[in-house]
Design a protein that fits this description.
heterodimer; A: alpha+beta; six-stranded mixed β-sheet; five-stranded mixed β-sheet; B: alpha+beta; four-stranded antiparallel β-sheet; 8 strands
Chain lengths: 377, 403
């Protein structure tokens, strides 16, 4: 075919060179109006079908730039709003020597999940959900994690924590088990902080991005931190002080549905745009604490940006004083994690956005809203 | 002898025809019934179940038309998967956008649907649309330069018609205007001119096929573009040859008309390309290019004039020939600028290639006939020179328009 484009796509500088004298000039006069007729950027408030449906809250903020429809949580077997707060604290018992023993049960299984409205992904899961259960324990407890592999490939649980090499879950260690096998990891809960676990079978990238990861939070024991006992108590799940906080588990992840090494969907807790369409309810006068981990594969970093507010940040959560004070943006490489603390006490109620501040991630699904309300309802 | 054979043949044929019709019908129905039973068994018993290895269905999606207007993007997509496929989400420039699909729901194999996206496209810039299906497969469609898709207003049609006339009708008319000067041509010059016509048509058939294959490559796989081009070209060659030889081998005005028809179909393709360039945002079509095209196409007029140098057709036939050869450029431009589907362009060009091939054969036959020298005529110096000049001129002037 004749090359009528007088330039390569990659060399657009040539555009606008000599317009045709004979006939075509009239055309360009018409097309010039194409751009200006659209309202710019985020505020694009266009109704798709022209029927002027009631404007949803998220539509005011994103217009038409969002995925279409909703994910069937019942079919997936997990609800991303519930995932924010459904900590798995296992079962507690006492060892002969008087120490506390906490036992978790985790099963690996293959499962097709709906990661964005209408888009199905052949995931590998812990307990049938992505991210896997958010395990929570207290510093100093003895932990037993009974891991069963009901999936089609070898898998493991590799915990970020302090433990022996036998309990590390890497290839060559007993914790990496084949289909139908079972293994019990056992170690002490230390150090306190916001950690994660993930499958360490090879190839690692495939096992990560197929969905095998989850939060592993070890709360500080107030008795071991007398100088900051109040802070430690506020972090310790189940205490009165901790109940004041609105704690949220957030896993920044992404899915490469075409298996070409580039992600098609980005999200917080798997489902693209879910917290944009179903904002997270925040009671204004109670502080917020987010346990945040990045497990995004294929992209070097991910980030978290809070709108209209600033937060204190505890990198890896292993300290009781912030490692970063008064920031509105942090970035994390893969497996990096931390704790964010902030409050909306001085704010007026309303919708407050949060998202990765890589605009590409945001527009491919990783963005959400806090719905700050006056009182609990 | 022949008569005898023919008679026997008729008698032999007559036997089965006079056999009971019901029996014939039965033997048509039996194989069809076997086929129906086999399909029924395939569907009901599902013996292929063991081939189901859990792999996702093969999916294919082709964008056939792209329309950019005030309300955003509209794309006509054709599904070509092994099963009906569902567009779950649509990205534009690596961001998800709401979209509407008409008709909604999954798209059956071979069916089309319009996808509308309220995307604020930017004039003169590139955009990339990416369809994500329910299995997570993606199908990209590039918009190299975003400009509003021309709509068929009288103003647009007129300006495109003027451009089409410049690249199609004008050069053919100019070529035909050499007619009086060439009338006194001697045998050698006649041979040269007819051979030059063969040369330029030879260039055009290659050029047209090349375009046809390129369009065919853009079309949905279910159209089997490459095979379609070859078969359509062959069919058009055979049909046109059969039609043209109903009253003996074509010569004179009839041959000129067939040449004009073949060139016209080629110019339709040229019009499609220019129109498509408008739709794709190539507003940088320069005056230089148009002049190049005009020069390139002048020989087409001389080629049409060559077979009628020794007859005296009425004046209006010249106007008719110029319109037949050049007019399709205008039509092609109209169709092309309105964002057509590539398989139809490929089909039109393939028919054109067949038509051009037909006139090459007929002009060659005319050359051999006129001189009575048989195939030896084809290797005479004037003929060889004519072919080389024809191809050479077309190739050289094509340099003006190839980018």
């Amino acid at each position: 075919m004749r090359r009528w484009l007088p330039f390569d796509i990659g060399r657009r500088g040539f555009l606008g060179a000599g317009l045709l004298a004979a006939g075509g000039a009239a055309l360009s006069a018409r097309s010039a109006s194409g751009e200006t007729s659209h309202p710019a950027g985020h505020g694009l408030a266009m109704t798709v079908d022209g029927n002027a449906p009631p404007v949803l809250a998220h539509r005011a903020a994103h217009g038409a730039m969002i995925t279409v429809g909703d994910v069937d949580n019942a079919r997936n077997g997990f609800d991303p709003t519930a995932i924010l707060t459904d900590w798995d604290t296992g079962t507690l018992s006492t060892l002969p020597d008087g120490r506390r023993l906490r036992t978790f049960e985790v099963t690996a299984e293959d499962k097709e999940i709906e990661i964005a409205p209408g888009v199905f992904f052949p995931a590998w899961t812990y307990n049938g959900r992505v991210p896997g259960p958010s395990l929570r324990a207290m510093e100093g407890e003895r932990l037993r994690i009974v891991f069963r592999n009901d999936a089609s490939h070898p898998h493991s649980m590799h915990f970020h924590g302090i433990h022996s090499g036998r309990m590390d879950g890497v290839a060559g260690s007993p914790g990496l088990i084949g289909p139908g096998e079972e293994f019990t990891y056992e170690f002490d809960a230390k150090p306190f902080g916001c950690h994660l676990y993930h499958c360490h079978a090879l190839p690692l990238a495939r096992h990560m991005h197929k969905g095998m990861y989850g939060l592993f939070v070890i709360d500080p024991d107030p008795a071991r931190h007398p100088s900051l006992a109040d802070v430690a108590r506020s972090r310790l799940h189940g205490t009165l002080e901790n109940a004041q906080w609105q704690e949220l588990a957030m896993v920044m992840n992404a899915f490469d549905t075409t298996f070409d090494g580039e992600n098609e969907f980005y999200a917080c807790n798997t489902i693209a745009h879910v917290y944009a369409k179903t904002p997270i309810r925040i009671v204004k006068n109670r502080p917020v604490r987010i346990y945040l981990v990045n497990v995004t594969e294929f992209d070097p970093i991910n980030s978290f940006h809070l709108h209209a507010n600033f937060f204190d940040y505890y990198d890896q959560g292993t300290t009781l004083t912030p490692t970063l004070k008064t920031v509105d943006l942090i970035m994390q490489c893969q497996a990096q994690r931390g704790i964010l603390e902030f409050t909306f006490a001085e704010h007026e109620p309303g919708l407050y956005m949060f998202h990765a501040h890589q605009a590409e991630f945001t527009e491919l699904g990783w963005m959400g809203m806090f719905d700050v309300v006056e009182v609990e309802s | 002898m022949n008569e005898h054979l023919a008679t026997r043949g008729v008698e032999a044929d007559a036997v089965p025809v006079s056999a009971p019709r019901g029996l014939v019908l039965l033997w048509v129905l039996v194989p069809l019934a076997v086929l129906a039973a086999a399909i029924w068994w395939l569907i009901s018993a599902n013996p292929l179940a063991r081939f189901d290895n859990g792999a996702p269905p093969v999916e294919n999606l082709t964008v056939e038309r792209t329309v950019l207007d005030q309300s955003g993007l509209r794309l006509l997509v054709r599904a070509g998967g092994s099963e009906p496929m569902t567009i779950a989400q649509v990205q534009v420039d690596a961001g998800y956008w709401e979209f509407t699909q008409t008709p909604a729901g999954s798209i059956a194999r071979g069916d089309t649907a319009w996808v509308s996206i309220p995307f604020p496209w930017v004039l003169g810039e590139a955009h990339l649309v990416n369809f994500v299906t329910n299995t997570g497969a993606t199908f990209e469609h590039a918009i190299p330069v975003a400009v509003a898709t021309p709509v068929a207003t009288s103003g647009n049609l007129v300006s495109q018609a003027i451009l089409g006339a410049f690249v199609g009708i004008l050069p053919v008319a100019v070529g035909l205007m050499f007619y009086p000067a060439l009338r006194g041509a001697g045998p050698s010059l006649m041979d040269f001119l007819l051979a030059m016509t063969i040369g330029l048509l030879g260039f055009l058939v290659v050029d047209t096929l090349e375009d046809a294959f390129e369009f065919a490559g853009e079309a949905s796989a279910i159209f089997q573009g490459q095979a379609m081009v070859v078969l359509a070209a062959a069919a058009s060659f055979l049909l046109l040859t059969a039609i043209s030889r109903r009253q003996g081998r074509p010569s004179g005005l009839a041959l000129a008309t067939y040449i004009a028809f073949g060139i016209g179909l080629h110019n339709l393709g040229e019009g499609l390309a220019i129109g498509a360039a408008f739709a794709a945002g190539a507003a940088g079509l320069g005056t230089f290019l148009v002049i190049g095209f005009t020069l390139h196409n002048i020989t087409e007029g001389i080629g049409i004039a060559a077979p009628i140098l020794k007859v005296r057709p009425p004046l209006w036939t010249f106007a008719g020939l110029a319109l037949l050869a050049g007019g399709p450029a205008v039509v092609g431009m109209w169709i092309g600028s309105l964002a057509y589907a590539p398989q139809w362009s490929a089909l039109a060009l393939a028919i054109g290639a067949g038509a051009i091939l037909q006139v090459i054969v007929e002009v060659g036959a005319l050359l051999m006939r006129e001189r009575g020298g048989g195939s030896a005529t084809l290797w005479s110096p004037p003929v060889l020179a004519g072919v080389f000049v024809g191809v050479g001129f077309m190739y050289a002037t094509a340099m003006l328009v190839k980018i």
